[in-house]
Phosphoesterase
Amino acid sequence: MVPFSFAGHDLFALSEGALFWPERRALIVADLHFEKASWFAKGGQMLPPYDTLETLAAVAALVRRTAAAELWCLGDSFHDSAGCERLQPDARAALISLTAAVRWVWITGNHDAHLVDHCGGEIVEEALVDGLLLRHEAERDEVRPELSGHFHPKLRVKLRGRPVSRRCFVASSTKLILPAFGALTGGLDVTHPGIVRAVGRGAEALVPVSDRLLRFPIAA
């Protein structure tokens, strides 16, 4: 975990693509996209059906590692609003165990806006927590400090002549966009116009590596 400050709060960036907020003992993740493989299977595109279990195992490992008391999911936790209905019994049991172990809050996103069967936890559209606004998609004109997901940001650079792609955080003075945490998620380059519009000028891509945070300016 790599410490850094955002909007006056001490946070930790995890290489797995999550945030830890020690003051609240809160773990924050975005874009889990549970049951993405089963959604594609409905349309005839068969993918290995293990994405949900893999993502749940990664979340559970971080809960244990950080001793988190709260877990905030910043939207698109399911690939579609009916995804929870397709959970296999072992995945459902694992999820229910997690939502019972911590205060679990689902913030809805564009993929799961009508989430109902949530296997425990609270469902909200957004939340203001100790001065930080937690929502799914960054709003360009929002002046309050904001944590969000949605864009699945990735940094693509060349290292010794070879292309390297790493999921990353995107930060400005008032906005912090988390990478996608789900096992079966792609990514959007940090220079994409949608990301640049959302965060404005002066933003950086943040990549936690071992005990330090690599910072890469994003050209606006």
Observations:
- The chain is about 20% helix and 35% strand.
- The longest strand covers residues 153-159.
- The chain has one domain: 2-217.
- The helical segments are 36-42, 51-66, 89-101, 193-199.
